[in-house]
Structure formats: C-alpha cells, structure tokens
Amino acid sequence: MDPMTHSSTFLLPSIPADNRPPLAYALVVLNQRLPRFTPLLWQHAQLRLCADGGANRVYDEFPQLFPNEDAGDVRSRYKPDVIKGDMDSIRREVLDFYINLGTEILDESHDQDTTDLHKCVAYIRDFTPHPEKSNWCILAAGALGGRFDHEIGNINVLCRFSTLRIILLSDDCLIQFLPKTHHHEILIQSSVEGPHCGLVPIGTPSRKYYNHRPAMGSQ
C-alpha cells in the first residue's frame, strides 16, 4: 500500500517546506459558525468556495474577526471565487454583493439529491487538472455542529469522495477519512492541536496492527 501522510500545517501561519510535494488547498465555507482561524485557511487556499448559505457566514462573520477594520473593506478582501449550491439559504443582498465583486455563481437548485458540500467537492474534483489531483486538499470550514443530519451528511461526503483529501473543520475538531488503500502517518502539530485523536471504523470492522517498541530502560 502507498503511504499517506496527514498534517494540519494549514493551521500554522506559514507552511514549512519539506521533502514531500506541496499540497494545494481549496477552502469550502459551509453554513455553520466559522472557526476563528478561517482567515488563515483562506490565506493558504488557492481556490475558495462558499456552499450556498456559507456566503452569509463570510459576509456576516469575517468583519467580526477584524473589528478595527471597515466591514466593507473586509468583505471585499475576502471575496469567494465561487458560490455554489441550491441557493435556498443565501440572502439576496449577500448574493448581489458578491455578484458585483465578480464572484462566479453556480445555481444547482435543480439538484436536490446531493448536499451543498457534495456539489462543491464535485466542482473542485472537476476543476483540478488530473495529474495534480493527488496534491489537492479540501478544507471544509463550518462543517460540524448545528443540525445532526447536516453534520452526518458532511461525513458521508468524506466516504463518497474517499480518493480525495477532505478535512471537516470546526473550532475544536477536525475530521478526515483514512482510506484502507493506504498506510497512514499522522503528524501532530502540538502547538495548535489538542491531546486527543480518535480512530473510528465506519461501516466495516477494523483490525489492529501493533508496532512494538521497547520503552527506554525496559528489557
């Protein structure tokens, strides 16, 4: 199996270089309260999408993160590249604001069989050139909390797009899918991550593999 390395360096102000090919980040903003570090994710991203009502969150909450700046300036600076979804949540004044700034609007109201996150992930999958797809990582901000059916729907997207790197983010949690087609190495960023890491099998049983290393001084 090919090794897959996981690291949340996107939570750091700068992404340190190493010997692995650099990841390209796409940010999807969903319609739940945004993590306080969302502007940092925005800075790292090469592509920024709002999933329908996620545009309301950017419009309303980003100025609160920069209370000493003019709200209009903040909103203009953090302009999404694309707003995509069934358009049942975005407010009219927010839609008009971003249309005037040149944001691409993709109305998928004809598709009621997939979630807005699913629609955005499918767009990113089709947007990225095929040879580079393995180097793309999708960060979904505001993906956790709120209605449980929405939250579990977002987790379902991880399983539906299991060949893509997708990370669901909230202020205190991140979730990603570890496909069984790879070995996995998780690198902890101790300066920004807490002490807990849970590994949960989804849909199938798991088997444990132990790599025993003797503790210092043991026989």
Fraction in beta strands:
15-25%
Spatial order of the strands forming the largest sheet:
5-4-3-2-6-7-8
Return the domain count. 1
Number of strands: 9
Largest sheet properties: 7 strands, mixed
Uncertain parts: 212-219
What is the CATH-assigned architecture? 3-Layer(aba) Sandwich
Structural class by helix and strand composition: alpha/beta
Estimate the helix proportion, in percent.
25-40%
Continuous helix count? 6
CATH class descriptor name: Alpha Beta
Q: What order do the SSEs take from the amino end to the carboxyl end, as H and E? A: EEHEHHEHEHEHEEE
User: How far apart are the first and last residues' alpha carbons, in Å?
Assistant: 33 Å
Tell me the radius of gyration.
19 Å
Give the CA-based shape: globular
The CATH topology label is Rossmann fold
Mean pLDDT: 83
User: CATH superfamily membership, which one?
Assistant: Thiamin pyrophosphokinase, catalytic domain
Main location: cytoplasm
Enzyme class: transferase
GO molecular function, one term: ATP binding
Subcellular location: Cytoplasm, Cytosol
